[in-house]
């Protein structure tokens, strides 16, 4: 057995460093994912049916972040969500690798989606290669295509070689994910970013899943991520789809669930096969904007502690320590 030590976000801290930054406003936390996808706040909302429809996309867009409209709907419904997003915002749209994905991709791009996200659990897969080939033929080289998920350097390199411009990195790390329990596979989230950041390809790294706070975001950026993707941090907010329900004590709740959970599969396909996610109830938390503003402040402070004025400087200066 190979003896590899792999780090999670909680295993490390960043060493505070001398700073000459007088105000957090001097820090530029924007990220250019290229081909028309530039984020002032480098956070993406996960393509999930309890997270990402037009209200979330508009709220994320308002603060310079972005959202990927989920694909658990008819093409008409998904296009309808894109139509409801202020066209000045940057919005992505998820597709799969089988069934109606070609027709769906074409309708979403026509509707104004700024980028597509090929959204499958195990993205380092022959069907991803075939889908990327088809989509590149359809949309040419200038349209931004995100793909994933992968957990390894071989994974990100292959997806880049197959035509992806950005890759969602992390397998099994999501808060509602049970892939590691069901299948025994996965890598700790931070280790995935450290490994994927060794790529020599022209590809952007999206740190996806398992990010619990702005501190984890700063660690992901320091390790090489160009943007982070989150679900649970946005769950339960007013802009998420789904009903609010009240318990006997008067606490208000919403549902947050993995897209491979039994519940999500039964709702969208009428049955479930192997399940790799769970459904949870989360407290209703009001508008997402306050949460995003707090995350932004935390990220800016994080850059400041490493004396970094932008993402590139952070990645050069950051010094990780492993805590016992
Ligand atoms: P969170 O921010 O930790 O809640 O993780 C969100 C991420 O979990 C998503 O962006 C997906 O990559 C991943 N994910 C969503 N649904 C499932 C699932 O059912 N099983 C495993 N991973 C999932």
What does this structure look like?
α2 (75-83) runs parallel beside α3 and α8 crosses α10. 34% of the residues lie in helices and 19% in strands. With 324 residues, it is of the alpha/beta class. The strands form four sheets. It has an eight-stranded parallel β-barrel, surrounded by seven helices. The radius of gyration is 19 Å and the shape is globular. It has helices at residues 54-62, 75-83, 101-111, 126-139, 153-162, 179-183, 189-196, 214-223, 262-269, 288-305, 311-317; strands at residues 12-14, 31-34, 37-39, 43-45, 66-69, 91-95, 115-119, 144-150, 166-169, 204-208, 227-230, 245-246, 252-257, 279-283, 320-322. It has eleven helices and 15 strands. It binds inosinic acid. Inosinic acid binds next to β11.
Give the SSE map.
Blueprint lengths: L11 E3 L16 E4 L2 E3 L3 E3 L8 H9 L3 E4 L5 H9 L7 E5 L5 H11 L3 E5 L6 H14 L4 E7 L2 H10 L3 E4 L9 H5 L5 H8 L7 E5 L5 H10 L3 E4 L14 E2 L5 E6 L4 H8 L9 E5 L4 H18 L5 H7 L2 E3 L2
Parallel strand pairs: 4-5, 4-11, 5-6, 6-7, 7-8, 8-9, 9-10, 10-11
Antiparallel strand pairs: 1-15, 2-3, 12-13, 13-14
The site of inosinic acid (IMP) has 22 residues, from strand 11.
